[in-house]
Amino acid sequence: MNKSRTGRCPDNFIFYRQLDFCYQFRPTIKAAYISCPLGKLQRIDTEEKQNYTMKITADIELVYNAAICIQGKNTGSGWKFLDGTLMTYTNWGWNQPFKNANQLRMIRWKNYVWATTSDTVNCSYLCEYP
């Protein structure tokens, strides 16, 4: 990981060349108030992106002690990304997803499995730049 010097990413974003991924850590907040003014909530659509997120967040629990909210919504006809694309990669935890919850998060202390939660739960998050 390194700061982009190519102009690919906005200021204050980090660039990971292998995944062509610009990202920014954001503060812990209630899921309902997540804000990514220069991008969108992180989208995990491959195992490689899941593994990279695990790597870059492995030692941040003293700063971000909440689970990591990620992009995805329950539409009633499956889980989809914010642009409406069906999610084909998932990493659901045991007994997940719950049908009555609409927010996704990665649980660091449970090997980064995915779980659903309500919008009132605190989470840390990453924004990505398109």
Automatic annotation (TrEMBL):
It comes from the Eukaryota. This is C-type lectin domain-containing protein. Residues 22-128 form the C-type lectin domain. Transmembrane segments: none annotated. The lineage of its organism: Eukaryota, Metazoa, Spiralia, Lophotrochozoa, Mollusca.
